């Protein structure tokens, strides 16, 4: 029997002992390009119990210092930084034909082959769609690339994860580029995000729950990929 993941909400404490550290913990005055940088370290602190531990959780920052987390293990606040609601097993009862409201922030990418030997690289779906456009005209086509490329990407995810979406019932916006510094000589981590909000129809409940547990898209360590759903 498969053990369901846990859904938790973790909020940075606002008492005096933590309040003084908030500018450091939250990264001070962040702009949109820095989304995911402080949260990446904060949420990891709730799950890292050894150097070899691999990520087995998804998260989304709902507002500065407040995180929703879907994880294989309950979070543990070893540093007394958070107030954590009691983790609950995530096992919603779904049936074929159910309609759910969903919200999803993702790093949506496609893979393009770069050599005859099968090597490939990941490309942001918006920039990939704009690649064939003349440089001087890309800005005017960005919205179309975001809407059409974004929905095509979402439909591919839907087919694999047991749900269906209609274009008229999905809003796609919030396209942002992000750059996260890394230590030493490593190049910065760069990625983009898109926000999807709308209604889906359940075709395969088990496949949908499995897809939600795995997460969607790339850059999951940086707050992407967690699909939030509720009854429509």
Describe the structure.
- The chain has helices at 16-19, 22-26, 37-44, 125-130, 138-160, 205-214; strands at 6-12, 57-63, 66-71, 82-84, 88-89, 99-106, 109-113, 120-124, 163-180, 189-202, 227-231.
- With 232 residues, it is an alpha+beta fold.
- The chain folds into 2 domains: 6-89, Alpha-Beta Plaits; 99-231, Alpha-Beta Plaits (2-Layer Sandwich), CATH 3.30.70.
- It is globular and about 55 Å long.
- The model is unreliable at 30-34 (pLDDT under 50).
Features:
232 residues; alpha+beta; Alpha-Beta Plaits; 2 domains; four-stranded antiparallel β-sheet; 6 helices; 24% helix; globular
What would you say about this model in short?
The chain has helices spanning 16-19, 22-26, 37-44, 125-130, 138-160, 205-214, and strands at 6-12, 57-63, 66-71, 82-84, 88-89, 99-106, 109-113, 120-124, 163-180, 189-202, 227-231. The protein is α+β, with helices and mostly antiparallel strands.
Helix/strand order, N-terminal first: EHHHEEEEEEEHHEEHE
Structural domain tally? 2
SS summary, helix count = 6
Beta-strand content: 25-35%
Task: Let me know the average pLDDT.
Answer: 85
Query: What's the CATH C level of the largest domain?
Result: Alpha Beta
Low-confidence stretches: 30-34
Radius of gyration: 19 Å
Question: Percent helix among the residues?
Answer: 10-25%
- Level-2 CATH architecture of the largest domain: 2-Layer Sandwich
Largest sheet: 5 strands, antiparallel
Annotation, overall tally of beta strands: 11
Globular, elongated, flat, extended or rod-shaped: what is the shape? globular
CATH fold node name of the largest domain: Alpha-Beta Plaits
């Amino acid at each position: 029997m498969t053990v369901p993941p846990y859904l938790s909400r973790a909020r940075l404490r606002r008492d005096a002992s933590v309040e003084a550290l908030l500018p450091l913990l939250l990264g001070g005055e962040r702009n949109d390009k820095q989304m995911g940088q402080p949260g990446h370290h904060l949420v990891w602190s709730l799950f890292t119990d050894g150097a070899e531990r691999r990520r087995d959780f998804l998260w989304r920052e709902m507002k500065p210092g407040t995180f929703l987390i879907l994880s294989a293990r309950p979070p543990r606040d070893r540093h007394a930084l958070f107030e954590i609601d009691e983790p609950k097993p995530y096992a919603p009862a779904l049936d074929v034909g159910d309609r759910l409201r969903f919200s999803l922030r993702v790093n949506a990418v496609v893979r393009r082959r770069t050599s005859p030997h099968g090597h490939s690289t990941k490309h942001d779906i918006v920039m990939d769609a704009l690649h064939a456009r003349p440089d001087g005209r890309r800005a005017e086509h960005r919205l179309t690339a975001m809407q059409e490329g974004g929905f095509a990407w979402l439909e591919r995810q839907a087919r694999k994860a047991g749900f269906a979406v209609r274009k008229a019932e999905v809003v796609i916006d919030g396209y942002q580029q992000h750059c996260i510094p890394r230590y030493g000589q490593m190049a910065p981590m760069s990625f983009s995000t898109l926000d999807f909000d709308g209604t889906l129809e359940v075709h395969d409940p088990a496949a949908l729950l499995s897809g939600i547990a795995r997460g969607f898209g790339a850059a999951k360590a940086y707050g992407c990929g967690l699909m939030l759903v509720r009854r429509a």
